[in-house]
Fold each of these.
Amino acid sequence: MKSGPLAIVGYMGSGKSTVGRIVARQVGWEFVDLDEVVAERAGLSITEIFDSLGERAFRRLESEALGKMLGGERVVACGGGVVEEPRNRSLLSQVNTVFLWEDTEILWRRTRGTDRPLRGEDYEEFSRRYSERLPYYLEVAALQVEVYERPPEDVAREIVAWLRE
């Protein structure tokens, strides 16, 4: 089996945390949701960080947390924008990183009504941001998994099989 850690990247709503928890349970590794780590360390919710400190401060906190979490036998579900920072892409390229592909329209529907600071007001903005991040997801990914509304257990099974190769 590949050694840890395993990072999971993808756009908001792609299932990183849900799939990550399943993978961690199946391989017996710790699970970490990077957004939860950032919020805990800041003492604020992600929305509060964006509202009071701004995106730049959030990205700095996110990069610090990523550097500390990418070690050992751990599955790390990363925030959707973690790949925007070159330093983070460098870190992610050095570990087992999985990109969860999902259709943009499905992601848009799945994130409707959620409290996600960068979701955007309209589909065009949402889609543009995904298009901008896509090359970065592909750059860091050692494995690309097509989600396309498959059950999270099926997606996790594919990742676990890859880890066990």
Note: The chain has a mean pLDDT of 92.
Amino acid sequence: MNDIFRGMLELKAEHMLASVGEGTPFFFASPEETMLAEGHFATVPAAANLQELSALVEAELQKAVEAGHPDPVVVGAIPFDVGQPASLIIPEKVLRAGPLSRYVELPGLSAKTEVEAACEVRPVPTPQVYAAGVQEAVERIRQGELSKVVLARTLELEAAQPIDLQGLLRKLAQSNSRGYTFAVSINDRQGALVGASPELLLSRHGNQIRSNPLAGSAARTRDLQENMRRSQALLLSEKDLHEHKMVADAVVQALTPYCRSLYAPAGPSLVNTETMLHLASDIRGELADPSVSSLQLASSMHPTPAVCGYPFAAAREMIAEIEPFERGLYAGMVGWCDAHGNGEWVVTLRCAEVSGKQVRLFAGAGVVADSDPAHELAETGAKFRTMLNALGIANVGEA
């Protein structure tokens, strides 16, 4: 019976994916469940900061309950720059199922996403300019301005044909089954934010909370022995361990005031994705006050040093000075929160903005005093591979 029930859940999840289009408000697949939003009930108004946004979300959910909505859930994405507007709505309905199967294919669900090799690619900034920005950051970190900053770059692609959103999500889910595959309609323009994040910012189910921060990375190869060597080197790297500790400590510091108990491991473990090796800390706790929502908890940590730097204000200022583009929803958070405060929010990584034939990919790397510009450039190239592989594009992003 268990196998039959599991098969029914997988089939429903596959059908949910098969109905995703560019106008779909929200699709979210975690290792435990799949969610699909349908229709539009209300839009969460713009807010000046995350504290105000959390209050507005709570108010909109309460209004939806009073208006007779049977199960209101806020879904969507929040940008890196908390002063910019979020893309959050309450849909008419949220369908839920078990996790997506990596193997089941349905008629009508295309797995073809290949983009022609001749597609136009424009890096912003150029690799040379990005490396120079990393070098500038290293010098300023050594002068004592800050301890860490995360610098990102983008790839702007234009394909010959519109991107197959369903096929793209399918490949992302198949290749990153331990992560979080998502598609979010962007409020202020056409298109969707699509990605496969490996990093759980915060989940809350009842009084139990969990965060799984990642920091300290190395590119994964197809050679098993080389991956083992890189894994051991990462676990022993003083530079990467220092970078990870900064992030894990910041998460613990943010969550401690809300928790009756909180457990954080003494040191990081290793998490593998299709393209990367990451240092990770599995942090779990029990809430002292059950009225605190998942969004409030996630907001208390956002943005973490894993996507911004430390101290926050100095890192945010340096990002604005060096990066020649607006991050938008990249390095923000994407997820959901229901009227009971339960929810799940992941860091918006390994993602791209997709609109018709156009795709804009994002990738960043943490810069500390011991960083090497060539290494950080190569790391962003490796991180691009999650989306590039799903798009069927080779030999782009490493340079």
Note: The longest strand covers residues 148-158.
Amino acid sequence: MTISLAVLDMAGTTVADDGLVERAFTEAVAAVEVSEQDGRFPAMLDHVRRTMGQSKIVVFRALLPETEAQQANTAFEAAYSRLVETGRCEPVPGAEQAIKDLRAAGVRVALTTGFARPTQDAILAALGWHDLVDIALTPADAGRGRPFPDMVLTAVLRLGIDDVRDVAVVGDTPSDVVSGLRAGASIAAGVLTGAGTRTEFEAVKATHVLESVRDLPALLS
């Protein structure tokens, strides 16, 4: 099997999450007057946990009316960016070297996220990763976020990959795996460094379950 492109998720896969999404979510819903003591909060937090990896505005739209969803999404992005700017952003151990090894082996690398562009850019800047990968995409760049295949296919088109079967998609949520399978990737792998469990990955028919993205270069060699 020849892999020409690796499409890698960010938070939980290449970037350590360490609860940042949940902290930012708590601040976001507080902006629309839903506190942690609100009776709605536990179910809302559970939904956020179950939809990790998906477009954040889509997640908020499932929880709130449109105006409040937009307000909460803006507050979420601002809160997450503040956490990143205060040094609460680190790579998953071995992730940066794995990306370098993939590119040295001739594999193009795309980073994808459920965050908006300003938050993705803040993360890339904090880690010094703007020049580490070939392309970085958000749901807005592709049309739809995960579990749809749009970001994977956008990376394929923009990087001139000839065959979707030459693609490996790796992420820490079932949504990442489903997006890879829907795109026709030969490898749609889950990693155990974030939100997803081995059982969840097996349930959505992941081609592989890896301990970490650092194991990807060896899988492709």
Note: The chain has a mean pLDDT of 92.
